[in-house]
Design a protein that fits this description.
Number of helices: 3
Radius of gyration: 15 Å
Order of helices and strands: EHEEHEH
Strand order of the largest sheet: 1-4
Helix content: 10-25%
Distance between the termini: 30 Å
Shape: globular
Strand content: 5-15%
Structural class: alpha+beta
Number of strands: 4
Largest sheet: 2 strands, antiparallel
């Protein structure tokens, strides 16, 4: 399972609210927009991945009362290929990510996603 990082621009409507406990005081050389490498490095330095609402088009794409940490399940080579191609097209993906064993994630509460269309969620 892969959690990938994308560029984050605090001025963009698709940017999730950045956590107050993100530790801005401990980050060096940061400037917006935050690069995928910067986001990756921040997660490694803090030893955690923050749950967000996965905002797309100015709307939350996570339904429910709590934000979530999202993962993709694909071979690493396919992830690198897709990440590079989507980044070149300006899409919200990169080749920077953290890889976790599926069994380990399930042990700490991760569950499969139920995909649905937004028009059915209103």
């Amino acid at each position: 399972m892969i959690h990938f990082f994308r560029e984050i621009d605090p001025e963009d409507t698709d940017t999730p609210v950045l956590p107050e406990n993100w530790g801005f005081h401990s980050m060096e050389n940061w400037e917006a927009p935050f690069t995928p490498f910067f986001m990756f490095r921040n997660a490694v330095r803090h030893g955690r991945v923050w749950a967000t609402w996965a905002v797309r088009g100015g709307k939350r794409s996570i339904y429910g009362h709590n934000p979530a940490v999202c993962f993709t399940e694909m071979p690493i080579a396919a992830f690198l290929e897709a990440g590079a191609a989507r980044a070149r097209r300006g899409e919200a993906m990169s080749t920077f990510g953290l890889v976790f064993a599926k069994s380990g994630l399930h042990q700490i509460g991760a569950r499969p996603v139920i995909y649905g269309l937004a028009r059915f969620m209103d």
